[in-house]
Amino acid sequence: MPKIDRSTVPVKTGSIYPAPYAAMMAGRSSLRLGDAGGLTQFGVNLVTLAPGALSSLRHWHLAEDEFVMVTDGECTLIEDAGETVMRAGDCAAFPANTPDGHQFINRSDVPASFLVIGSKAKREVATYSDVDLVLTVEDGTATFTHRDGAPYKTAP
Known about the structure:
It is built from one helix and 13 strands, in the order E-E-H-E-E-E-E-E-E-E-E-E-E-E. The protein has one helix at residues 33-36; strands at 11-13, 28-32, 42-49, 59-61, 66-72, 74-79, 82-87, 91-94, 103-105, 112-119, 123-128, 133-138, 141-145.
């Protein structure tokens, strides 16, 4: 496999979250390096957080394992048990079906980056710990519901 030229990988910004949560992801961008390399069995993303930015809403995965390694700067990992400062070289693993929501926040005054590696389950469910929101992805289609299964509808 040839070397991936990061300068040619499109920068992904924004969020698929419904309102009002999508706006909370301002300052987050990512490079989908696994897709750029043609990988199909697992994803590899390089995420960059501007100062003050969040990686995601605090969440956990039903079917997918997730691994994170900070590559530049400093992030704060938020989990059920509290907060952990993570610096370049620090790693964290989130096994599938472990209901301990996680997210990263850049509380520093410089950008921070981390590599995320995750399995690509055919059907995935992500549950958001702090809000009444569940994401189901099946065959590439994302659907948001409330925890009781009712469809999530954004306000008009």
